[in-house]
């Protein structure tokens, strides 16, 4: 049975402070939930109007009504199930040849899309400044379409990390080298800045090089690209010619 207390906890998990307080986060949709046991995430319980038909023998599954699902879902159009999962401990892994580094990305949709891009291009780790959108925000989870379970996302003081990394720190800016003429180093951190203000000045000081995506259209109405769009273009170019 879905109790009022459980509903209250589930509803609070859209806020980071309550995710940290309860050490829990939510994942919605049977398709994504089925992937979790193979990814190392622990599921405490599943609440569903259409219980999962896969091998989850040790996980309690509670059948609920559509009305209850609407109460606990963070989606405009709720799907079939909500899984209550244990918040994992974030640990940095050995540096892969290509990493994404996010400096103050705020929009959960952008964050989730960037995680999905990393998964698509086989990038196993994303390094984030401590004020970057939380990977366990329900909107980030949904935008990543399950990719959060395959990409290690770490939050750390960025300047300290960039000082110690063995990869080349490559920034993105309107005044950098033309992306399509640039020769990428073998080991590189692609650093993407905040949607409004870009890369912080203190981060810029630690860059070894800067690239830009040139504008080919004549219209000046579009001042810049969405950060997740820019990340996709850069990764496509990197892997097309230099991997």
Features:
single chain; 4-stranded mixed sheet; 243 residues; alpha/beta; 9 helices; 6-stranded parallel sheet; 23% strand
List the strand order in the largest sheet: 7-6-5-9-8-10
Given the helix and strand composition, which structural class is it?
alpha/beta
**First-residue to last-residue Cα separation:** 52 Å
Count helical runs.
Answer: 9
Calculate the mean pLDDT score and round it: 92
Order of H and E elements:
HHEHEEHEEHEHEHEEHEH
Report the radius of gyration as a whole number of Å: 20 Å
Helix content: 25-40%
Total beta-strand segments:
10
Low-confidence stretches: none
The percentage of residues in β strands lies in: 15-25%
Sum up the overall morphology in one term: elongated
What does this structure look like?
The protein is of the alpha/beta class and about 240 residues long. The chain has 9 helices and 10 strands. The strands form 2 sheets. A 6-stranded parallel beta sheet has the order 7-6-5-9-8-10, with no helix packed on it. The longest helix is centred in the C-terminal third of the chain and has 15 residues.
